[in-house]
Amino acid sequence: MSRKPCCVGEGLKKGAWTTEEDKKLISYIYEHGEGGWRDIPQKAGLKRCGKSCRLRWTNYLKPEIKRGEFSSEEEQIIIMLHAARGNKWSVIARHLPRRTDNEIKNYWNTHLKKRLIEQGIDPVTHKPLGSNTNPTATTQPEKLHSLDAPTSTSLPLSSGFNTVSKITRNDVAPVHGGSLSCKKGIKKSSSTSRLLNKVAAKATSIKDILSATTLSYEPNGFPTRNEEDSSNALTDFDPFSQSLLHEVHATSDFDMDHDGYDFSYFLEKLERDDHNKEPYMNVEYGHDLLISDVSQEVSSTSVDDQDNMIGNFEDWSNYLLDHGGLIYESPYQN
DNA sequence: AACAGTCTCAACCGCCTCGAG
DNA sequence: TCTCGAGGCGGTTGAGACTGT
Prior knowledge:
Layout: H1 19-32, H2 40-44, H3 50-61, H4 72-85, H5 89-94, H6 101-118, H7 192-202, H8 206-212, H9 230-236, H10 242-252, H11 263-276, H12 303-322
Helix pairs in contact: 4-7, 7-10, 7-12
The structure holds a DNA duplex.
């Protein structure tokens, strides 16, 4: 017994939405609010199925959606979260204010995945491609960590990171076929390790990010317009402002051309901490690094969950800040 | 200019989850 | 407890844009 498909109906239109249809949908939702998607097409005078209306609204028309090119910080947060959670686009989207899961998914599939491959990193496992046999997957361990990090980065098999290594773009053999292009404004990516350091530097602003994007809504589903508070945050807020970037660049010697990929060390530390039951960050690899309990995944409206996420973010950033010397010093750097 | 190959991303599809009755 | 429908989610598709020859 199979369920009747949602979008079965005579004369229902498919394909690209027209401006006129958009106007009708926006107008209806502005007046009546979101919800009751099944009834919206008829009430709004649209020959679309409710699901199509919902997708069009949530992925494209919703006023708070941020469109346009992803910043390098957004890119790297995606990479990091993908490493932690896999293709959980909706979970990743919750950590990227004003981005939709669909947009993130598309961006991953068309840009980031290729770039990781180009760098010799398996986009599924986030391990070096062919790590068991690839001699380039090992580098001088003494160069990897300036603190008391172990010189070996091997992990137990169960961790899924048994052969994690530090690699640089210069280390990576050309991808088979070698024609992965970076089109349309794609910048050379920086490494996840730099991401972690950058995010750590910014992590103290995460509360601001979250609070700035905690919007109140009118009954019609649109953000409350209040010049004094959250609406300013909505329209003006840029979680990756140039001033922040400037600070980060100043402290991390940001260099797009010489990248490491030492996220693995971070994960290794998590693994060790978990085994040792160290209190300050008790999460396992495979759990959300920001939201340690899957059952507590963030609801965008839950204060408790948000606090929980902030707490995890702080733990995470503290870890990174405590290991500020993690940045891999590439032997190829000048 | 024309064509073919490639890329991008909006939109669709089908399954899953959750809550109401 | 079960059924059903709404909404959510991740994978996939295909039209149009872009690029190379």
